[in-house]
Amino acid sequence: MKIQTILAALAALCIPAAALADAGHSHGDERAYGQPGDPKKPARIVQVTMREADGRMEFVPRTIEVRKGEQVKFVLRNNGAIDHEIVVATLAENLKHAEEMRKNPDMEHEDPNARRLAPRKTGEMVWKFTKAGEFDFSCLIPGHREAGMTGKIIVK
């Protein structure tokens, strides 16, 4: 076998970093709804509570308004009796991810735009909203979004 053939075969096995960033959960910098924030920089604090109430699952608040370019530190609290998560993304991305979660309900997230919390636990997430638009936040544990656990982020 010629060395050029071997080198071509090896090159074909190499996957560009950009392709890896788009596979499954992306970890790139800029997304349609912004980018991971810098915890060392100032941020507006937005408290978000996850809970079950009156036969529903919900986030409080359900709507969050943000200025384009603003960095937000989400201070999260699960006041519920079961695990909940928050995933910030476009509505289309969250609906697609929800399908993946139905196939693999124990999927764990290590993404800068998502946090899962056990009952009575707290967490934080820092995100910078670099683009105007309406974006989604949802709990993608199977059945939770359908039970009302979704909200909207409006970036002006």
From TrEMBL:
Residues 1-21 form the signal peptide. Residues 47-156 form the Blue (type 1) copper domain. GO terms for molecular function: copper ion binding; electron transfer activity. Keywords: Copper, Metal-binding, Signal. Gene3D superfamilies: Cupredoxins - blue copper proteins (2.60.40.420). The keyword Signal applies. SUPFAM superfamilies: Cupredoxins. This is Copper resistance protein. It comes from Chelatococcus daeguensis.
